[in-house]
Specification:
Elements lengths: L7 E4 L8 H15 L4 E4 L5 H5 L7 E5 L10 H21 L5 E5 L9 H4 L4 E4 L5 H19 L2 H12 L19 H10 L1 H5 L17 H13 L4 E5 L2 H13 L5 E5 L4 H10 L2 E5 L19 H10 L15 E5 L6 E3 L1 H8 L5 E5 L29 E6 L1 H4 L7 E6 L8 H11 L6 H13 L4 H27 L6 E2 L35 E3 L3 E5 L16 H10 L6 E2 L3 E5 L6 H19 L4 H4 L1 H6 L8 H14 L2 H10 L8 H9 L3 E5 L13 E3 L14 H16 L6 E3 L1 E5 L5 E8 L3
Parallel strand pairs: 1-2, 1-3, 3-4, 4-5, 7-8, 7-9, 9-11, 11-12
Antiparallel strand pairs: 6-13, 10-15, 12-13, 14-16, 16-18, 17-18, 19-23, 20-21, 22-23
The protein binds pyridoxal-5'-phosphate.
Amino acid sequence: MMRFRFPIVIIDEDFRSENASGLGIRALAEAIEKEGFEVLGVTSYGNLSQFAQQQSRASAFILSIDDEEFGAGSKEEVDAALKNLRAFVGEIRFKNAEIPIYLYGETRTSEHIPNDVLKELHGFIHMFEDTPEFVARHIIREARSYLDSLAPPFFRALVHYAQDGSYSWHCPGHSGGVAFLKSPIGQMFHQFFGENMLRADVCNAVEELGQLLDHTGPVAASERNAARIFNADHCFFVTNGTSTSNKMVWHHTVAPGDVVVVDRNCHKSNLHAIIMTGAVPVFLTPTRNHYGIIGPIPQSEFSREAIEKKIAANPLLQGVDPKKVKPRILTLTQSTYDGVLYNTETIKSMLDGYIDTLHFDEAWLPHAAFHPYYNGMHAMGKGKAKARESLVFSTQSTHKLLAGLSQASQILVQDSQNRRLDRHLFNEAYLMHTSTSPQYAIIASCDVAAAMMEAPGGTALVEESIAEALDFRRAMRKVEKEFGKDWWFKVWGPEKLAAAGIGERDDWIIKGDAKWHGFGKLAEGFNMLDPIKSTVVTPGLDLNGKFAKTGIPASIVTKYLAEHGVVVEKTGLYSFFIMFTIGITKGRWNTLLTALQQFKDDYDKNQPMWRILPEFCAQHPRYEGMGLRDLCQSIHEMYAKGDIARLTTDMYLSDLQPAMKPSDAYARIAHRETDRVEIDLLEGRVTTSLLTPYPPGIPLLIPGERFNKKIVDYLRFAREFNRKFPGFDTDVHGLVQEVDEAGNATYFVDCVRQT
Ligand SMILES: *Cc1c(COP(=O)(O)O)cnc(C)c1O
């Protein structure tokens, strides 16, 4: 196997000393190095938890217990040293159950060490009884076997293949990167991405790696490994994102004319699936607050009776007996963008047997399986009973919250008590949507991302994310307290926050009648807020949709942050959103916090825009002379005048009636039977495209639905706003913009042709 760099770490107070103890340990270090292993010698544990981070870079630890501090005899000293040792070993084992740990002693022996520490060790080295060479070989054997155990099946096979150096005649045409070397720009590409990435970019003719499309060989072994790790009965890796995973799940289960039950706040890939399958959707409508944060669908909406009522009311389903309809699929966004989760066990018990397939779109939730915090709040909980009839699917974007390359995604399936997934039939849908040339680096990242989450490491990683997220919330509150009556940003979430540590899961269960969320009365225990999602609220708008005299629209804050090197995930009217993935560090959120402080300072001083947002002003010189506070105020006043918070809430909650099946409306595009209709003429027309405002990126209208007045009012507002504040544009996907010679923009939407 390839040589990876994982030094053996020695921690010994005497590592650099000229005494006998120092000579002994250095002799061991030299013997290890002679065998070709790197050694990293340090003289103290230092900051315990930081040092334990080293467990991911080390192949073994050797901890000396000969040190002075271990006590020349006094009981207190020995106890203190033991406590240190125990804490250190505990910290490593919290994250890593396998890495070899040795104790090293000359005068002391294992008798001095209590059992709870001994049981975590791979051995006790008593130096003067064996030669350093002998001891070194023993440790190296263990370190090697540890390293060999790390790689999951596909990654292991890919590394082996890429190192093997065999010549191939198959595609891709760059032949392990060689093609790039034949041109200067190709050379640059090669140097940037590196040899390994290109050597590992192989085609599916390579037998020894297995086939993603048939799920064979090492790929299949990796999928089985991931299924086990994520508590699923089946796992399918997908290299084209969860957008594709969703379409696969749908195409396995839904055929033309089928009734499907869909979260109105769903990702557009599910809406594309409605169009592609020719389904008739009935929508479940989520609550919203006036910040524009999307809340949960009330529990009552999930009852069979409520769904039958919707079927009865659907103009496309007139003449069918709602009691006889069995919807094919339920698709629910499990973890909304803002972090609202559902009690999946409740939903399963309400719909089991009524709906064939329960599909949880867990694009933002692959971490939930690894921490008890999320117990019952994700699709496939450990030890949870299977549904009796319905199959449960979860689609997850490995790349969004775990360590996956972009587009890394997976489909997890839980069989029911009475039905197993027919993998062959499922694969028909899988093949319909997957490229026949999958990217192997993405498969490897699916494999590695899953292996990283293996207990106990995965739990430790998620716990760290939660801890960082809570530290951030506490830090924001501390700043607020210091400012006293002066303004500051708030992080949206429950009032109660643990004083230290990660607190309790119960702190994040959304209480039915709590005021902070603004979603009205909710069923008890049905929802949770994922603490790793943080929505930061800017001043100016309250939860009732009332505008204050002054305000700070979030889009200005996030532009400011971007020019200061902090890019946020999503921006709303008076809120923006950040996420504590397992890649987030203290440095990152502290930088955000200081940048927000600078913003406040610049705002309070009304600093000129040219000074604080030079890049933005270079693109939009009209703002150069303005002060930051003045700009905030003029945008704020325009929002207030348009009563935009209430308008968007009303618009999203308005009763939207389908005039035709989404697939029929879409067919008009294929048949070129559309009109490009100007905004002012839209009311009453039927759209052929998805219309999606950003923020929040939730489709407002889907093909086949009619424009109502509220939506037209909103589009007029967006048009007016974009004219007044270029650079802060409300982006509406689905709007067609045409610019005339004088530079004036007109906006259109493509609609079903009127004859
Ligand atoms: C991002 C997202 C998807 C699509 O995932 P990709 O991996 O980007 O294709 C699907 N569903 C939801 C809820 C998402 O947020």
